[in-house]
Amino acid sequence: MTADEDDYNELIDPDMRGETYFEVLSGCELIGFLTLNISENVADIGIGMRPDLTGRGLGTEFMSSCLNFITKKHRNVKAITLSVACFNIRAIKVYKKLDFKEEYHFDQQTNGGNFKFVSMRKKVSLE
What whole-number distance in Å separates Cα of residue 33 and Cα of residue 46? Predict the structure, then answer.
């Protein structure tokens, strides 16, 4: 996170992050975070899992808990969007498993470099 000064400053400053950042806990243990911005019934999210927990098959459960939180907290949400670096194959696999569909690709300056990203969207079923 420290490679992108703007993102890092937002993460550590309570005034900058406002009410858009949420802790993801397992019991009392911090396992990651969720960012949530809602506009016109669409939740745009960002997630981060603690690095020592990645690559251990926990991604689907982590992401499912984030999605459940969103749909319970914001029942009017009709879609959830996210952007992920194209090199993050494991994350993309998890998102596709949870019915996210690729929308478009774009380049983004972040973490000290320019990277290809994919925007993904999941329709939220009304139950």
Answer: 8
CA terminus-to-terminus distance, the chain: 37
Model pTM score: 0.84
- In a 13 Å sphere around the CA of 115, the CA atoms on its Cβ side amount to 14
pLDDT in tens, the chain (127 residues): 555 666 666 666 666 656 788 889 889 999 999 999 999 999 999 999 999 999 999 999 999 999 999 999 999 999 999 999 999 999 999 999 999 999 999 999 876 788 999 999 999 986 5
| CATH code of residue 103 | 3.40.630.30
Q: What are the residues whose beta carbons fall under 8 Å from the beta carbon of 32, sequence distance 6 or more?
A: 24, 47, 48, 49, 50, 53, 62
* Domain boundaries, position 99: 5-123
